[in-house]
What we know:
The protein is about 35% helix and about 20% strand. It has helices at about 15, 30-40, 50-60, 90-95, 105-110, 125-135, 155-170, 180-190, 195, 200-210, 210-220, and strands spanning about 1-5, 20-25, 45, 65-70, 75, 100, 120, 140-145, 175, 230, 235. It has a 5-stranded parallel beta sheet with strand order 7-2-8-1-9, sandwiched between helices. Helix 6 (about 125-135) crosses helix 7 (about 155-170) and helix 7 crosses helix 8 (about 180-190). The two termini are about 20 Å apart. Its EC number is 3.1.3.71. Belongs to the ComB family. GO terms for molecular function: 2-phosphosulfolactate phosphatase activity; magnesium ion binding; sulfopyruvate decarboxylase activity.
Amino acid sequence: MKVDIIISADDIIESKIEDKIVVVIDMFRATSVIVTALNNGCKEVVPYLTIEETLEHAGKLNRQDYILGGERRAVKIEEFDLSNSPIEYKKNVVENKTVLMTTTNGTRTLTKSTNAKTILIAAMINAKAVAEKLLEINEDVVIINAGTNGNFSMDDYICSGYIINEMLSVNNKIQLTDIARTANIIYEANTDIISYVKEASHYSVMKSLGLDEDIEYCMKKSIIDIVPEYKDKKITCL
């Protein structure tokens, strides 16, 4: 079993993910939203690349059956019900609803990963559950960091390190590429997460927007046990 990392959506190469088990991470905040919404009882999350596509699909559904969620540049989309804040996706809001979602980085990463054999959704909040599922599947893994506007993102990278560290704690024979090994080293040196993440540019943007509650929530380790899967253009729990 081999584990590799792709550092942003712009660096996805089809040949690297074809027939692989892919794990998509957008810790701040798309994948944290997806995990939270599904854990709170939403039927499914359907990701879209553009606002226009999202609204077009919404027009085909009964208004009481769906929630529009998403952001551009970390700010809520004007026509939408919710932003990209996981704490907004409460049980009484999303239960039995379909969440139609578009974000700057996360949903773009998902839509570019469809050549993979299996696509799982991960964040800090469900990292241990994802690690356990990967060990159970026992096939080569490529962890894809959504990144920020096509660039490397420190927050997604340390989340990758945490998942790898959880896998190694059970099976230390896993093969790691250099970039995957480095992620584990960085995690082990910053297990509190904040000591590393506070240096990230995305963290600074969120702080400037007053998103402190989101930051705190998204850094919580393994508080949710579900593993979402992106399949047939929608995300549901495995």
